[in-house]
Amino acid sequence: MLDPKVTSVVGIDVAKASHVVCALEAPSGKIRQRPKSIAATAAGYAKLLQWLARWGGPEAVLVGLEATGSLWEPLHDALTHAGYQVLVLNPRQTSSWSQSLGLRAKTDGIDAQTIARGLLAGYARASALPTETVQALRELTRARRDLVQARTAARQRLLDELVVVFPELPGHLPAHTDLATPAVLHLLGAYGSARALAEAPLADVAGLLAQHRGGRWTQEQAQQLQALAKHSTASTRAVRARGTVVSTFARHLLERQRHIDDLEKAIAAALHDDEVGKRLQEVPGVGPIHAATIRAELGDVTRFTRLDQVVAYAGLDPRVRQSGAFVGQRKLSKRGPGALRHALYLAVLVATRYRPEWRERYHKLLARGQAKKEALTILSRALLKVIYHLLVSGDSYDADKIKPRAVVAAVGA
Known about the structure:
Oligomer: single chain
Mean pLDDT: 89
Structural class: alpha/beta
Shape: globular
Number of domains: 3
Largest sheet: 5 strands, mixed
CATH topology of the largest domain: Helix Hairpins
Strand order of the largest sheet: 3-2-1-4-5
Number of strands: 9
CATH class of the largest domain: Mainly Alpha
Low-confidence stretches: 406-413
């Protein structure tokens, strides 16, 4: 229900360069301000505050913003610092309002008015805003994830080029070495083809490898590598150009790795004084990066009142499509953050390898006919339940309580 003190409701559709504002009288619903645009600048915010003051002031005005990425944050700060009550609304919620009103068109003005009407009807449920720590971890982990994905793509491109200019190299590297090893990347950054490596002075090759391998790359290994280059079956077409591409991607990977290292240091610093992050790392399979991701994407668990809400938020709840005699396959809803599900999945993968209580549950699921991916998905949901219980109750992890119990229904991964 809308607070009787509220005499105006204001819906704001947020965008990058401008915002559209629509105001209605409460409780009559009479239009006080037709949808009108303001600039997403200090001057635009000042104009909006002037409008709000005419419509009743902080106690009498309720403002609703749609949570579009992080674009709402500056406007939210400006309004809350001025004393106004601001509800940040989930886009799913506002979309359902449009559907219930039978709206076919979609414009910024219609969206702003829809938000205002939702506020007037008392339908609005404010989204929980992340704490400073959660917001910091969210920014850092998402940036790291983007860089890791870009690194994977660049590494594949480098491998594709090497197939032509030095096909023997990936399969003839020393033990505990691969194309991601800094010494190899430095080598390729300097000599991007078999021909370039074969023509280089041996002393230079050995010195470069030793410099970036901490002296653990021997002169004999450098000599073998150069001999491999001299007898390579590499293509003789566009060798110089292709060598330049290889060197460029090798240096790019080195730089990309430095940026990832910087982000991981920042993540470690953010977790250092965070008690929830520390508790997460007590759970089997959850290392610092997984802890940071789970912390960032799950947020404050106290906003959930039931366990099934947490499972649904993570998108690990099963859904069944059924109509008449047709019964579809059970599949995960996958509605929540994909990064959260991925972190839980990887953590379970580690836990089933190194912790007997999780390994036992995994093998029991396999014995009941579950596919490996389905079993790991089921255990991901179980791990999330354990995490939720530990964070809410304050209990310590107890391996004796993680025992196989009744059969858990399978869901599609």
